Amino acid sequence: MNLRLSDLKVGEKGVVSRVVGDRATRRRLLDMGLTRGTEVVVVRKAPLGDPIELLLKGYNLSLRKSECENVYVLVEEEK
């Protein structure tokens, strides 16, 4: 299932499938390691959902919810 990164719940993981947005936003997200094929785990969310802490490539990254909406991830459906 293809979801936005901002839609994942704490503890869920996904694999980045694409990054969208204007050129500057895309470049910034790609430079931070959110490239196609990267596994991302949601570590925690702030009480109001902004920011979101992620674990990827061995480091923690905090992004605003609006930035996470530009990243699409593939999530394995539970059976």
Output the number of helix runs.
Answer: 2
Helix share bin: 10-25%
Order of helices and strands: EEHEEEHE
Global mean pLDDT:
92
Computed structural class: alpha+beta
Strand proportion: 35-45%
**CATH architecture title:** Roll
CATH topology title: SH3 type barrels
Question: Using DSSP, what is the number of strands?
Answer: 6
According to CATH, the homologous superfamily is Ferrous iron transport protein A (FeoA)
CATH class descriptor? Mainly Beta
Output the radius of gyration: 11 Å
Which term fits the overall shape?
globular
Domain module count? 1
Describe the strand arrangement of the main beta sheet, using strand numbers: 1-6-2-3-4-5
Strand count, sense and barrel status of the largest sheet are:
6 strands, antiparallel
* pLDDT < 50 runs, ≥5 residues: none
Task: Report on this structure.
The model has no long low-confidence stretch (mean pLDDT 92). The protein has 79 residues and is of the alpha+beta class. It is globular and about 30 Å long. The protein has a single domain (2-74), classed as SH3 type barrels, CATH 2.30.30.90. The chain starts with a strand and ends in a 5-residue tail after the last strand. 16% of the residues lie in helices and 39% in strands. Strands 1-6-2-3-4-5 form a six-stranded antiparallel beta sheet. A hairpin with a 6-residue loop joins strand 3 (39-45) and strand 4 (52-56). 22% of the residues are buried. The longest helix is centred in the middle third of the chain and has 9 residues, at 23-31. The chain is built from two helices and six strands, in the order ββαβββαβ. It has helices at residues 23-31, 65-68; strands spanning 2-4, 13-19, 39-45, 52-56, 59-63, 71-74.
